[in-house]
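Q&A log
Question type: sequence-to-structure
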Amino acid sequence: MDNIIYSIENFARSWLEFILSSSLQLGIFLVLIAALTFVFRKQPAKFLYILWLIGLLKVIIPPTIKIPDFFASANIPIAPNIFIFPIPEISFVTIALKMPELSYKGYLLLFWISGIFLISVVWIYNNIRFYRKIKRNSFSIDNPEVSNLVKYKNSRIRFYSGPDITIPFTRGIFNPKIFLPNQALSWSKNELRAVVLHEYAHIKRKDIVVIAFQNLVQILFFFHPLVWLANIQIARYREKACDDFAINAMKGNSVDYSKFLLKSIDNAINWQPLPSMSNYFNQSKKSLLNRFEYILNRKEDVMNKFSRFQKFVFLVLVMFGVAISCHKDQLKSTTSTSTGQETTKESDSAKIEKGKATPIPAIPSIPAPPPPPSDSDDIHFVPYDDPPKPIGGFAAIQENLHYPELARKAGIEGTVIVYAKIDTKGVVSKTKIIKPIGKTTVCNEAAVQALKSVKWIPAKQKDKPVAVWVSVPVKFKLSQEAKE
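Response status: OK
Response body:
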């Protein structure tokens, strides 16, 4: 249980920083998209659809992109800061009794994982149930009049109908299928062609792939209200863009198309907050009325290609999305060098001349020692944010300790203090005996073997594992029976 809690806490620290940064940047970006939508509200639906889609694509850009600060690093001398790592002796009894507890970060992580799991289960269940229902109650339409409504070459599109199908919709990526209600064959030729062209537009635009991406983002950011808003807007403008495609294919016959939209209000379905893996022609009544208003106010000819201005807006948006993720990666020096001290002296002298500071006695500069080689056995201090921890606690070390028979017979007791190097994989790679016990090395060897038998959680520096040296006391104590 302790190992699980340690793992959750270890992951929760980096996860919370990532999810907060992503959510904040995504929120700022989507607010900007909403403002641009209001400014360009008279633009074609296809343009506004891409705007919101770019807003949702922000989630694939890492929240932190480090770029080197060349100007800052050129003026800051870098000197190694090497110290012996002082670690006081730790009592095994105190550590063994201390049980690890989940912090608020751990609870937030568990809440996030639980939310993703529940929403995913509901989403998968609804789609499987819907797929089985239409597969069981639908049949293929072999009417050439329906197939000839859209002119295409080498297409795999198939038409289906059934008693449980009340609204037109499209499913499938590689083998797309258009499902029509039973009464579709009794519609007029213009009404039937309007629906088929609308669904064909979804297939041609590969909208099912975008819907899958929407589902993924919606599940991962289920707690973000602006993500829900973005998905609603994307679905709304996607339907309007397909309406434009169908009307253009019908040579601008928007009157018959809008009449069919009004006629479809009776079969309107409730809006689903989480998009499913289908494209629906009919949505909520409010959405259909909104599409009807858009068609009445649309221009006679909606351009299929984007203008230079529209492309420029897309480019600026993408650049802004990347820019808010970029941060300068400055190299900082923790020790003073002779160059740095000379700069300080010059600035102090300038202040003295102006009468704004008092003289400060100069401190002789001491050159910093050279960095140790990577394979050196010397013990050096490495800064870290989170110390290494043995999986199972320090009690696990004592449990893996085998009391040497020679030391037991000789009645040797005491504490062996071992300096151990814990590498980035949580393995004891090097050891040094700082405080041995007894005249033989059997206890020292047993202590080292006990340390190496335990897996460690490596130390972290800025959420990255680092190799550090730690001081570990290993106690050898005989029981009362063994002493007698």
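Response note: The chain has a mean pLDDT of 75.
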